[in-house]
Amino acid sequence: MAPRGSGRATNPAATENGSGSGAWTRRQVLHRVSTVGAASAVFGRALAALSAEKSAVTDEMIRQAEWISGLELTDEQRKLMATGVRDTVEGFVKTRQVPLDNAVAPAFHFATVEAGNQHAARRDTKVTFKPLPSVARPASPEDLAFASVAELASLLRRRKVSSVELTKLYLDRLRRYDPLLECVITFTEELALQQAQQADREIAAGKGRGPLHGIPWGAKDLLAVPGYPTTWGAEPFKDQVLKEKATAALLLEEAGAVLVAKLTLGALAMGDVWHGGQTRNPWKPSEGSSGSSAGPD
Each residue of 225-234: pLDDT tens digit? Predict the structure, then answer.
């Protein structure tokens, strides 16, 4: 799929808020920096070097870093960025105040309940799958498209719908809405149809792989899939093709899921502005979808 031109104006304030008033938010400043691709890394290194011997980042340091990296921000944008950097540094300082010996192993268990809860502290939890519910096939393609994964899995197991049918349905919807939402970087249609056909054959033979078998999905373009670009949403990497397969993509493939497209992310996983444009909120297309998982969101 050919990348789209961003069509952005030279004046960033006029582009981002549509008014030229310069009333920027921190999020919009990050969008602006992310659009410059490799230059943002130069900017970060320059700012780090300028602030190495100082107690805090200042607006003037940001101005000097701009000159080094070729960026151009307004006074308001510099002020917002300086505040954001100082807040981030303060967070790092607080984190480093927590005593944690190097001998302490990384945590492999995360609990969202209070400390001391024995149930949450168990390490022998096993994942089990409940029996798939028996559901009726939705009357319309629209209702079928919005069915839950559990419902789709039930329909696939009972052969009330095929993986090929679902795959074509979602590919059609992506092609229909992508011009508005700008949520797809690369379609993987050939691979998708091969995987869907294989899933249908295996399900018909009683060789189910689990609840994701035959379910279409889209990969955030941070995940490498051999044979397709992995752009990280950034202009310098828009033609990058990696030989490796991301672990997440491999596990989903082994579970029988069907990859239909590689979806957008903000440049270098920041925001919703990528090398082809800005991904839109499907519920309010006049605004961005946020990020970094702009397309999947």
Answer: 999 999 999 9
